[in-house]
Amino acid sequence: MRSSSIRAVTSLVALASVTAQLGCSAKPAHPESVVIAAPIATSSADEPAAPVPQRADARRRKAGSLRIGETAHRLGFDLTLTAMAECEARYYEKSALKKAGQRLVGIEMTFEATSDTPFTPAPYNMRLIDSEGLPHTYSFRGTCEPRLQSSTLEETGTRSSGWVTFEVATGSTDLEFRYELDSDKVIEYDLGT
Questions:
Q1: pTM to 2 decimal places
Q2: What is the pLDDT of residues 13-41, one digit of tens each?
Q3: Could you tell me if 74 and 66 are in contact, meaning their C-beta atoms sit under 8 angstroms apart?
Q4: What gap in Å lies between CA 103 and CA 107, rounded to an integer?
Q5: Sheet of 138-139: strands edge to edge?
Q6: What are 78's strand-pairing partners?
């Protein structure tokens, strides 16, 4: 312990020596009436400050977000969310969901092919985003039936309908549904709950 305190004192003496050689003083470089602020690289004094991002729990009806019952038209398919409901857990799923603080939310949807290019709707591209911004993926739990089948839609007018279930936190609110095929084909629905 004594050797570490000797090293510390030696370091302080060396620092004081270097400071004295450079001619540093304790006086501020500017008069006391001048306030120096840290520069911000992306703004100037003439520009207004950037808006503070709002929390995700604020109602966020985004431009381009749809509501249940509306249809999203994309190249090759249409997607319509027709209903949302709390799904009942099966008797053997209840304790695990309760322990994890989760509930089951089901969304009924219909995909319709709008071209002869094969398209396969898949639940692994779907997310529910809660008010905290946390994503929730699909689950095989629950009794919302019939389930959406991931069958290929090969001809114009072919449909695939069913329920997709998600596990979300019990107290989560302001849910948003996202179907993400590619970065340019993201479909968002504001579920408003």
A1: 0.64
A2: 555 554 455 454 444 444 454 444 444 44
A3: no
A4: 13
A5: 71-74, 77-86, 102-113, 159-169, 138-139
A6: 73, 112
d(CA 90, CA 48): 55
Name the token pair of 74. 């994309």
* Joined tokens for residue 135: 């994503």
User: How far is Cα 154 from Cα 114, in angstroms, rounded to an integer?
Assistant: 10
How do residues 112-156 score in pLDDT, each as one tens digit? 999 999 988 888 889 999 888 899 988 999 999 999 988 899 999
Calculate the alpha carbon distances from 13 to 21, 25, 182 in Å. Answer: 12, 16, 61
In the DSSP assignment, the letter for residue 29 is S
Tokens 């008010």 -> residue = 131
CA angle 171, 174, 178 (to 5 degrees): 115
